[in-house]
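User: Okay, second chain of the day. Same drill as before: sequence in, structure tokens out.
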Amino acid sequence: MRTDLLRNTTLAALLLAAPLALTACDKQGPAERAGEKIDDAAEKAGEKLDNARDKAGETVDELRAKADAAMEKADDKK
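Assistant: Same drill. Structure tokens below.
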């Protein structure tokens, strides 16, 4: 009988403590907040690099087309 009481008391304590433990996990400390800021900054930097790469690629394509046109024009004058 004493074992049953101890087991039931332990089970009740665990069931009552579980929501408290889960609630504590939601709160972020300074390290977690700093980590999120770093992640956000890295993501934004990556997006800017992608945009710059795309724009550079477009510029190269435009310059290539102009060079090709100039070469054809030079060949036509021969």
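The helical segments are 2-26, 30-77.

User: Thanks, on to the next one.
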